[in-house]
Amino acid sequence: MSQHQELLPEISDVGSKSPIGEFSRRDFVKVCGATGVGMFAVTMFGSVPFVSALKMPIMSDAKGVLLHDITRCVACRRCELACTEFNDGAASSYLSRVKVARNFAAVGGVPAGMAVGKAGDFRMQVDTCKQCPHPVPCAEACPKGAIRADVKTGARRVDPALCVGCGVCTKACPWAVITVNPETHKASKCYLCDGSPECARACPTGALKYVAWTDLRLSSPPVQPGILADPSTSSYCAPCHS
Amino acid sequence: MPTYGGWTGKTLRVDLTTRTSTVEDTLVKYKDFWGGTGMAYKVLWDETTADTHPFDPECPIIFGWGPLTGTGAPSGGRTAITSLSAQHPFHAVTTGHMGGHFSAEAKFAGWDGIIVVGKADGPVYIAIRDDKVEVVDCPHLWGNGIYRATAEITQAMGGSCQVAAIGQAGENLVAQSVVMTNYSHSAGGIGANLGSKNLKAIGVVGTGSVKIAAGKKAWRALIDNSMQLIGSNNQHVVPNSPQPWAEYVGGSSVRWYAKKGQYWGAANPPVETGTCDPHDRQSVGYRCLKSDPGAFAEAYTVRMDGCHSCPIRCHQALSVPTVAKWGVPTTAANTCTGWWGRGLMDNAKVIAGLSKNDANLKSLEAYVVGKHMTDDLGLTNNYGTTDRGWTFVLLSGPAMLADDTKKPTHPLADATTLKAAGKANVRLSWLQTVLINPAWDWTTLTAAAIGAEYASLAGLTTTAAATTLLGMYAAGDLNCMKEFGRLMAYQVGVFGTFMAGPVEAGLASWETKAPGLTAAYHASAAVQWWANGFPKHHSLENGGQVGGLINTCYNRDAQNHSWSNFLANGLPSNVSAVIADAEFADNGYMENMGLACEFGSVTSSVMNPQKAVAARWSIARKEIMDSTGLCNWMWPWIVSPLKERGYRGDISLESQLFSAATGVEMNTKEFDDEGIRFYTLERALTLRAFKARNMRVLHDQLPPWGLAHEGVATFNGTNYYETHADWELALDLFYAELGFDQFGAPTRATLTDMGLAYVADELALLPLNPVS
Amino acid sequence: MEHEKDMRVAEEIVDDATPETPEVDDEAAAKAAEVEAARKRLTIVTDHIRRESRAARIVAPATFAEEPFSYTEEQLEGVWEAIAADPEFADIVRTPDEKSGAEFLHSTKYLVVPYARLLLRTQADDPVYLIAQTVRDNAQTYPRPTPVTFFELDPFNLPLEEIFAHVTVIGSLEEYADIKSVTVSNGMVCLYSDRYLTEPRAMSLAQWAEVDSHLNSNQ
User: Fold this and answer.
1) How big is the A-C interface in CB pairs under 8 Å?
2) Which of B2, B346, B736, C39 counts the highest number of beta carbons within 10 A?
3) Interface partners of C (3+ CB pairs, < 8 Å)?
4) Is residue B159 over pLDDT 80?
5) In angstroms, what separates the C-alpha of C48 from chain A's closest C-alpha?
6) Which residues of B touch C3 (CB under 8 A)?
7) Does residue B442 sit in the same domain as residue B521?
8) Do the Cβ atoms of A105 and B159 come within 8 Å?
9) Nearest CA distance, A178 vs chain C (angstrom)
């Protein structure tokens, strides 16, 4: 039997009956409470120049998160394959919601026994989505409010119906774990596969585990300076991204 | 849903002379040849002649994989690099195989294969970023090793870049050179082909995807099924130590190593491999802690490594801090014969006085220094030939010729007899060859002189002695390894040229000084020469006639594990035989395939029809693997570790994966027939290279050591020797299975059935035997 | 995996299960309580056997007569009957020691019969028999000789010097006259039974397993 931690049981519904993208009623009320000051117009419909209102909901923490153990990873990349084949019907490392390929040679690109990676000390750095607590950088950056808390798991999930593929989220995420699919022109990120992540299931060493949510942001070095840009406040961005 | 999945639909052709690239439609031009070797044989047939030299600009180099590469089909990350061979006396077609992640990245970039023709006017690498292809000048990389080339190209192209590169050996047109990727995966014998084109490397980055024709649910179910049936390395399915869940225990040769108390000792903190119940999906990657230097090296193991999509991980990733004193990286990964320097220190007797720990560490350092030497310079040891052959030639060859009575009567008598006669230990590693001082004219040396020289230098500490290859070796100075590599990669002196060049050419030049040496070399079971300068690779000792037939098929060492894996899987022999009966019969093959099985290292029965079927099947599967991207060191899976299935695997799995990924429905027998079709084209290329049709005599005979000597009983389970009559029968039955004529040439009828009538036209013009 | 949900610390379960004496005259209620207690005993016993099996240990039936279980003979009879009757417990089996006949319990979900036999041989503390019989089994089953180092592994864990000492004893005993040895080219000593293997066959199998098979990858 498994020597390793089991996957969590399926996460129960966190709130609304609607499919992905609906935040909980509790959060809605919280926000409405704040409008007493008149700072935010909470509306879901109509063209509103003040687009921050669409994504203002303070998301509750996700129920779970993917944890990667660098000492167990054998760089087989079956996680990438499972993520994309079983979600998208096509295999891709670039689109994988768990990022392995880009760290392959060595983080930092310089080998010689100092860095991680195959050219370094062999440890394989894998970047996973932290399911950030509020404020969620990718959700904050999205001009369409397309990134919401998933009903089942609380995972921060892209609603393809709302996403316009602008890619601002890819620049906002400090770990660059959200990607725009060049074929569908939609952003795609880890949504924890409805509570049974395919990558963890596929991992032959248990290096990837699905665990109760914990804040992994400070223990995982970011790979890029995330831009917490609100397109609505930037005159440069607004014309294209509103 | 795409019309076809698996394939990307595009094959890249790069002409280095004009520095242009064109896109070929895979599904128009190569769909009938799938990819990998199938496609390569077609390209070579169309674009070369009998007189094409491997280094001619028009000689193509075909980097191939297949529709299953870059998908979740387990163990699908292989690359087959095919061209005309600089190692082979007639420059016949050979393939070098490398793993890693290169082919997967190329698939993600949108390519089913890369064909390189022409010759650049200066050192270049090919940079592929999805559909953007550039030929990039790189004079700064020429003269540098594979490590630097890989590092610089990766820096230029990004961290996910995969690089296939040659080292100085390939640049210098050394026949015994490689193409290497990802720091530990090398394709043997093909480096000089790139060197001849001034092609230093190919770097590839892919952001695309490989489409799967089947629906997500169906594909997932198939992948799940595969991951349940997978065993350990070489599809060995029984742990080699008692485990609570396991009905059976494998012997010492079984490669399911995991157990409680066994660790990747250099992980921080160490990672236990553990019990590994086969139902535990999250423990598959721990089954194979393959520690070639010995169990003590587990303490130096950071983790295991390997190819894209393979959960087994047969490369050992070591951290050996003390090698820093030799000026090499302290981390090193590789497997099997990729570890040069095995036994080096044992044979130098340097470790004789050391404690066990110190001796082990010294031995381990030799592994690591050797691997770095060869993987950076880009050398191959020709599956151990460099190790064994020159030891024989230089130390025991001349003396053996003098004593004709020293013929082995038992496979083990070789070592014993020679030892008793005061000859060198025939299990000497190649390291004995470093007893040579490059200043000597060693073609006139005798074994006695070499021995005397060694004896006089052993223990000496003078600077002069220490700087010779011999002196360094005797002192346990691993710089001898680097010096050896230098001599070979730069073909320095008579010694360097010999070691670096084709084996048969070397023997021929030596023959003038020591007549009869070539024959003695070919006949020695210690050297394990098979044909044309290449060694055996799982031959008679791995399945009797089946192993022998497999070894005849190609123009280099066989690189075929279809049958040898099954024979060593760890199950009781009778259980394996029953499974073979059932699995083959249920898939439409001959009945009683258990009769094809020879277990252990002996032959117990004469040739029979089942053995011919097994040999054909093994060849078919190897070609299928090399044309789909699957790994023939893992696949096919006759057996599985699951007791509830009676340990049965599923030999139709590859065809199921192929059908699901591509949308091209094919059952397992049809699948095999395609593999044989590819092999038949390879055979035709071989005939063309030999300029003759009589493969039976010219290509398919056993080496002398494989034949039984006078008075030795055969086929009674005490040895693996063949008789002339049985071997000719074996060829008869095998040729019949393949649709070849009595000379081992594909018949016109066979070729026409395969849609290769044009091949028959050319073969018909060849004489039976070469025109002298 | 679902078995783990049922697994709890034995002591806790036992404490939980200590039935209170019913203060009612209602026979039906008393009977129901006894049925419940029996069910709990069944769960405790099977959980314990499965948990021990997962840890690669077999269980003597007498274990349940002692602390912390302290079940009576009658109570245990009830448990064995329930196990035999319910397919859910088809994995719970008894394997006898080959010499004493004493039976031990284990769950074949985690610990199969052949491994139980090896454990029994080990705990019988008769290493001469352990080595000789295991060598015979291997020569018959696979067939293959057994390197002496095999008995250093779990679950045997015999030091090499002791193994050699036992092998010497084996060589002197008539009942083990079929146990022979071959020494291969790297010095490994491999044992076999000539009931099932001839010397040349044993030698070539041993040479292959201990030396030549590794040369394909290692030289």
Assistant:
1) 7
2) B346
3) A, B
4) no
5) 16
6) none
7) yes
8) yes
9) 34
Domain that holds residue B443: 384-535
Q: Is the pLDDT of residue B271 over 70?
A: yes
User: For strand B124-129 and strand B199-205, is the pairing parallel, antiparallel, or unpaired?
Assistant: parallel
B684 Cβ contact list (under 8 Å, min separation 6): B45, B746, B751, B756, B759, B762, B763
The amino acid at residue B705 is W
Residue-level pLDDT at B125: 98
Give the Cα separation of B399 and B403 in Å (integer): 7
Domain of A178?
Answer: 25-230
pLDDT in tens, B75-133: 999 999 999 999 999 999 999 999 999 999 999 999 999 999 999 999 999 999 999 99
Q: How far A80 CA lies from chain C's nearest CA (Å)?
A: 26
Give the number of other CB atoms < 10 A from CB of residue B550: 29
Percent of chain B with pLDDT over 90: 75
**Best residue in B224, B303, B307 to probe A by mutation, most A CBs within 10 Å?**
B303
- B71: chain A residues, CB-CB within 8 Å: 81, 85, 91
What is the per-residue DSSP string for B204-245? EE----EE-SS-HHHHHHHHHHHHHH--SGGG--S-SS--TT
Q: Give the model confidence (pLDDT) of C21-59 as tens digits.
A: 555 568 899 999 999 999 999 999 999 999 999 999 999
* Interface touch B280/A2, C-beta < 8 Å: yes
Question: According to CATH, where is 1.10.10 located in chain C?
Answer: 126-218
B214 assigned to some structural domain: no
Q: Exposed, middle or buried, B682 (CB in 10 Å: 0-12/13-18/19+)?
A: buried
- The verdict on B642 and B749 lying in the same domain is yes
Higher pLDDT, residue A58 or A114? A58
The beta-strand segments (E) located in B261-305 are 263-264, 271-272, 301-305
Q: Give the total number of structural domains in chain B.
A: 4
Average pLDDT over residues B700-726: 92
Task: With CB atoms and an 8 Å threshold, state whether B329 touches A3.
Answer: no
Number of domains chain A contains: 1
CB contact under 8 A, B219 and A77: no
Which residue carries 């535990």 as its tokens? B280
Residue of A nearest to C54 (CA): A1
Task: Give one DSSP letter per residue of B89-121, joined into a string.
Answer: TT--EEEEEE-TTHHHHHHHTT-SEEEEES--S
Q: What is the mean pLDDT of residues B396-418?
A: 35
| ipTM confidence | 0.90
The residue-averaged pLDDT of B636-658 equals 97
pTM confidence score = 0.89
Q: Å from B305 to nearest chain C CA? A: 16
- Residue B743: per-residue pLDDT: 98
Q: What is the pLDDT of residue A29?
A: 36
Quick check: is B218 in a domain?
Answer: no
Domain check: are B61 and B140 in the same one?
yes
CATH number of the domain that residue B592 is part of: 1.10.599
Tell me whether residue B632 is in a domain: yes
Q: Do B415 and B357 reside in the same domain of the chain?
A: no
| Chains in contact with B, counting 3 or more C-beta pairs less than 8 Å apart as contact | A, C
Nearest chain C residue to A1 by CA distance is: C1
Indicate the DSSP class of residue C96: E
Average pLDDT over residues B710-718: 89
What top-level class would CATH report for the domain C126-218? mainly alpha
Q: CATH code at A83?
A: 3.30.70.20
The structure tokens 């979600």 sit at A87
Of the listed ranges A41-45, C173-177, C212-216, the least confidently predicted one is A41-45
The two counts, helices (H) then strands (E), for chain A are 6, 7
